[in-house]
UniProtKB/TrEMBL annotation, chains A, B:
The species this protein was found in: Caenimonas sedimenti
Cofactor(s) essential for the protein: Zn(2+)
Cofactor notes: Binds 1 zinc ion per subunit.
Swiss-Prot/TrEMBL keywords: Amino-acid biosynthesis, Histidine biosynthesis, Metal-binding, NAD, Oxidoreductase, Zinc
Name of the molecule in the record: Histidinol dehydrogenase
Annotated gene: hisD
GO molecular function: histidinol dehydrogenase activity; NAD binding; zinc ion binding
Reactions listed under catalytic activity: L-histidinol + 2 NAD(+) + H2O = L-histidine + 2 NADH + 3 H(+)
Amino acid sequence: MTFAARPLRLSTADAGFDAALAQRLHWSAEVNAQVEDTVTTVLAEVQRRGDAAVLEFTARWDHLEATSVAGLELTQAELKAAFDGLPAAQRAALEAAAARVRTYHEAQKKASGESWSYRDDDGTLLGQKVTPLDRVGIYVPGGKAAYPSSVLMNALPAHVAGVGEIIMVVPTPRGEKNALVLAAAHLAGVTRAFTVGGAQAVAALAYGTQTIPAVDKITGPGRDYVAAAKRRVFGLVGIDMIAGPSEILVLADGSTPPDWVAMDLFSQAEHDELAQSILLCPDAGYIAQVQAAIDRLLPEMPRAEIIAASLNGRGALIQTRSMEEACEISNRIAPEHLEVASADPHRWEPLLKHAGAIFLGAFTSESLGDYCAGPNHVLPTSTTARFSSPLGVYDFQKRSSIIEVSEAGADKLGRIAFELACGEGLQAHARAAEMRLKR
Amino acid sequence: MTFAARPLRLSTADAGFDAALAQRLHWSAEVNAQVEDTVTTVLAEVQRRGDAAVLEFTARWDHLEATSVAGLELTQAELKAAFDGLPAAQRAALEAAAARVRTYHEAQKKASGESWSYRDDDGTLLGQKVTPLDRVGIYVPGGKAAYPSSVLMNALPAHVAGVGEIIMVVPTPRGEKNALVLAAAHLAGVTRAFTVGGAQAVAALAYGTQTIPAVDKITGPGRDYVAAAKRRVFGLVGIDMIAGPSEILVLADGSTPPDWVAMDLFSQAEHDELAQSILLCPDAGYIAQVQAAIDRLLPEMPRAEIIAASLNGRGALIQTRSMEEACEISNRIAPEHLEVASADPHRWEPLLKHAGAIFLGAFTSESLGDYCAGPNHVLPTSTTARFSSPLGVYDFQKRSSIIEVSEAGADKLGRIAFELACGEGLQAHARAAEMRLKR
């Protein structure tokens, strides 16, 4: 069986370019009524019946029978055994990746996650106290897309933030456990782990059951049922984001070997048929070379069928008038992953406003970032990079404003507050300020 | 008409204390089916018909007729005229408050909202670029609770973040405009303002209409319809939080004048009947003094009826065994506003983990923080301070990871990524890394 991958060819000089691009980018996050109904039932049942409901749904959808939720818990000994049992090369790679991810997130915490304060001339203290969350839940996909790297990317920032307890849930359909996932949980310091997935896992983490503790926030990828459940429990607990299909956009000036770019497009496409890979380049000859590399390399790929489906259905090779125009279009797309395959990436980086992660230069393949460069691989998808950020230490911290008004400050601020409170018709506010004025 | 306010008296030494406290704290954020149905319709109609739907809903619910949405836009001249027309004392107070809020948020941006990066020994660059959102919408409540301070608290952090366009929506039922709200919009640098409210305003900002531009994020308080609409459009745009009723918790060691504490409890209670005011104190005699102050001061308050309803329905005066225990209970409640009415507030502050804002010492009334101390008054409610933060500059920024792997780095990282990608069965990821290894 051979497959051909022909991403849509577009040029910004075409008359219908804007519409064609919009159509190619379109991905509907529309609510699916059947999914919503099921999630409503699951949330209500888990809230009402706790463990019993979790067991029923796990048996029904994951074909995993257990007599108690305790029987679905992975012990620390089991996690450690998985780690110890890994081939040495795999264990070393996992440790190296974890060390780099930890270092990066420690730098992140230092740069943007520490408490701060200042004093006014009158002695009034103002600032913010930054504290970790008490307990978080991390959702790790299982089954056909079991990613140990996702365990590291969710648990390590929580750990660096200082979260007290990290509860992991991961579905194990028919009881099939992924040794690398368990090993990563051991390495990343997961506090407790349960082989539960789907909306029932989100519900258990949000409401708590007899066995699974309620958490303050739930992070981690998941689509359909998991995403719908996360959206519904948002407010009772925090959530990170609602993930859509993964995307890569490559901005190329023609200086990177075409094979490398083709393989980077494949890296995204191999995730699933809905993943999106786009190339923006002002050089038609280079685009043709990338297409030739796609044709040459695709047959070698074990996941050629998925790659072909993704590139044919959602991929695009777009010729632009210039690199500047390519940057402008990239901002419109606000991609999850943005590779600047240029000999002069720092020339273009300042023009790039919206992206989850920006990979600069030919050597920076997305795959290095996915696993071990250090930055988080949980990134905003589906244009949400316009307003949201990579998962980070800040997702596992929260801030409290700190205000200590001095006696002199109360006299000064009290007069302002009194005036404004009267203007808003809130007399108790006004009086509370007035009482603290100097006599 | 006279009113009596008798907040529930509890003691942590009581047998049923935990249950009684839980019952008092209970506030259901449950989804209301009628609200949801209406919001579903409003969202669909505004998405489909744009301006026409906005006009219809505004006429129906705000009793405000207009022939075009352009007719609902407040011009910059109108905002400036409102500012120029304020009484001098009010204008000066508004300016002083705005200056302080701006200064605080500039410090916040400097402390936690700047780009950062570092280089590995092998030259690999890692960091995060922090950039402002392009366009945001701020929802300002109107009608009976029109708060100009909310305009400052939403618009100024956006302005400090560097947001390109700030679109304000504020309902003006029957066309009644609040001069202070318009003046605050002028002062805070709002780009465009529309007299539209409710779910239709949220829909217009999320989808865009012929006249109202689509934004990247919507912030600002609002309950019922507005909150339900924000929850529904989350993902298409960013939102700040889902607000519940406002709360204050006062931790008192008995050193603050009881009148001051009583008035601070009133400040919260006067917002609405669902607002919650709680006092925690180890000294029964002091609690009695606060109750006596409540009895004495209540008749003087213009909003006595609302204050009495709030304190009787949701208020509590709780005797604790110690200040340490009071801090522990405060963490359980995770209040929006937390006053530490103590002669030694810095002794207790380190014990306080969860709160939107912490007001230290007798002179720091919540009302000073509400208007002009500098920190934001948009704070997490209903125990969400466990996982969320005050509105801040960070709500109007997003982050992009920056990765530039050197040639030497690609060789080192490529080997790790290759190993892990093989372990996850993602061969294109593995090949992309392998291609960049040194020959």
